[in-house]
Amino acid sequence: MSTFIPGGSYAKTSKGIKSTLFCQSKKRNQTSIPAELDLTTLSQANVENLDGYLVNQPGSAAPKGYVPGGSYAITSTGEVVILSAQCQKKDQSWQYSTLDITHLASGKTLSNIDGVLTVD
């Protein structure tokens, strides 16, 4: 699994697990636009801002927990990493759940509590 997806028992009762970086990135003309990058399959990241769009480049920049490293941080603000998944409830139905993992300590694990992603 990706470096940017926390471990935990939730993975057994969740599907479509996805980790996404969201922020506001400056374009060359200095206007800011919403930007995002799917981190789900990345084992390492070196994120750059290319005219407002986030792109993972070869190499590795030191992450801060689940927030990837890279030069994008110089020209971007409001970095947030959101984990999302379809989580199975006790009644066997599925529910979409999200969790902000921006500041989650790397040793913490997650659980699925009746369809809700929860920090252990």
Structure report:
- InterPro entries: Cyanovirin-N_sf.
- This is Cyanovirin-N domain-containing protein.
- The chain has 120 residues and is mainly beta.
- The protein has one domain (9-119).
- Helices cover 3% and strands 47% of the residues.
- It contains one helix and eight strands, in the order E-E-E-E-H-E-E-E-E.
- The chain has one helix at 72-75; strands at 14-26, 32-38, 47-50, 53-56, 76-88, 94-100, 110-113, 116-119.
- Strand 7 and strand 8 form a beta hairpin.
- The longest helix is centred in the middle third of the chain and has 4 residues, at 72-75.
- It starts with 13 loop residues before the first strand and ends with a strand.
- The mean pLDDT is 95.
What's this entry about, in short?
By secondary structure, this protein is mainly beta.
Low-confidence stretches at least 5 residues in length (pLDDT < 50)? none
State the assembly state of the protein chains.
single chain
Number of domains: 1
Taking all residues together, what is the mean pLDDT? 95
Order of helices and strands: EEEEHEEEE
SS field, number of helical segments: 1
**Strand numbers in spatial order across the main sheet:** 2-1-5-6
Strand segment count: 8
Q: Using only CA atoms, what is the Rg?
A: 15 Å
Overall spatial form: elongated
Largest sheet: 4 strands, antiparallel
Protein name: Cyanovirin-N domain-containing protein
Organism: Mucilaginibacter polytrichastri
